[in-house]
Design brief:
The chain is an all-alpha fold. The protein has 10 helices and no strands.
Amino acid sequence: MRPSRALRLERSDTRMHALLEAALEVFALRGYRTARLDDVADAAGVTKGAIYHYFDTKEALLIGVIEHYQALAFGRAEDALREPGIPATARIRLLLRKVFGHSDIGSRGRLLTLLLRGVAHEVPRVHERWLREGPARLWAMLASLVEEGKKSGEFRPDADGEVGARVLVSGLMLQRMWQQHAGEVPELAVDYDRLLDSSVELFIASLRGTGGG
């Protein structure tokens, strides 16, 4: 009996996930330029032909890896933006908690950081694409919520949401990267929930007027 279409799709999704996980590890640890598709196939437990079933080139696979992890983060972010009937202040807290509160500071986070660091030099056009679709997209979403808050009277009219969003997102990304080295440099260590929550509250306080509630 042939497997159902749903089962075939499930198996395909499982294979794709394994392939992207393997590609992340191989590209990050061996370097994108020196890594071979054969290495990715071996790590994923698939044939090289299976990779070409999903991706035409090694660069397409690299882009697929980056977009996969961006989609995880931005899927959560867009959930926050769709929340109806709650103030901009609450949506800002929700947005940043969904994006940064679930961020991997463990092995996967280290691999992603290592991968992007290498890609910046090895495949700059892919790194530029990540900058547009990652950090720049996130601070644009955050800045739009600030504008909503200005219209509703939650924030002072002269608050510069774009600059504030850039500083906050960049700072949280840099701190997340540094936390990966806290084992070797204890001075870098900080409770991540405290870091996130306090950073968000400082950001919100800077947007309010002197009597903001």
